[in-house]
């Protein structure tokens, strides 16, 4: 029997199109994929060991935006040899054509990006259990679940079996791993930062694919 995959999803940016007036230039969704439950357990243990090594309490949570540079690097270096793979979708909003549904509905834009992340044939995601950030409201999650079932679980090609909400502030270290990976990849698209790829380079071996929607070849 095939072991159940565990997939942790987080994002960087937002689904709004008021760029320059509060919305981000990109929406980036990242999936951290474990092909076996024991791989997830090993990675969680590694993160817990790292947290203990830097003198943080068990309740301490790692979040990219709240960490200083050295701590971001330390976290990524601690997990760079762990058994997981990362896939991401980068939506650059100024490359999306006017008049499309993607630009008229933020909710649809987010759901469509989520579909791109999961349904990629090369991702090899099958019958997975998905874990998403718990900040989304119940109705938002319900709409996402209905949409993904329609778009991703078609016929025998069942991408996921279950979705669970996991708040980052409940010390769920694998959700925090997705947060840090999303932050690392998002930073690599910031032209206003010195050495924007410094975090992404650390986990490059773990990154399986970054799909850039709307980018010029």
Describe this structure in words.
It is a single chain. It contains seven helices and eight strands, in the order E-E-H-H-E-H-H-E-H-E-E-E-H-H-E. The protein is α/β, with parallel strands linked by helices and 217 residues long. The protein has a single domain, classed as Nucleotidyltransferase, domain 5 (2-Layer Sandwich), CATH 3.30.420. The protein has a six-stranded mixed beta sheet with strand order 7-4-1-2-3-8. A two-stranded antiparallel ribbon has the order 5-6. Strand 5 and strand 6 form a beta hairpin. It is globular and about 50 Å long.
CATH topology descriptor: Nucleotidyltransferase, domain 5
Beta-strand proportion: 15-25%
Strand order of the largest sheet: 7-4-1-2-3-8
Sequence stretches where pLDDT stays below 50 over 5 or more residues: none
Global mean pLDDT: 90
Number of helices: 7
How does CATH name the architecture? 2-Layer Sandwich
Kindly, what is the distance between the CA atoms of the first and last residues, rounded to a whole number of angstroms? 41 Å
Instruction: State the share of residues found in helices, binned by percent.
Output: 25-40%
Q: Per the principal axes of the C-alpha atoms, what is the gross shape? A: globular
How many β-strand stretches? 8
Per CATH, the class reads Alpha Beta
Q: Calculate Rg over CA atoms.
A: 17 Å
Task: Provide the CATH superfamily.
Answer: Ribonuclease H-like superfamily/Ribonuclease H
Structural class: alpha/beta
Output the helix-strand order.
EEHHEHHEHEEEHHE
Largest sheet: 6 strands, mixed
Q: Total domains, how many?
A: 1
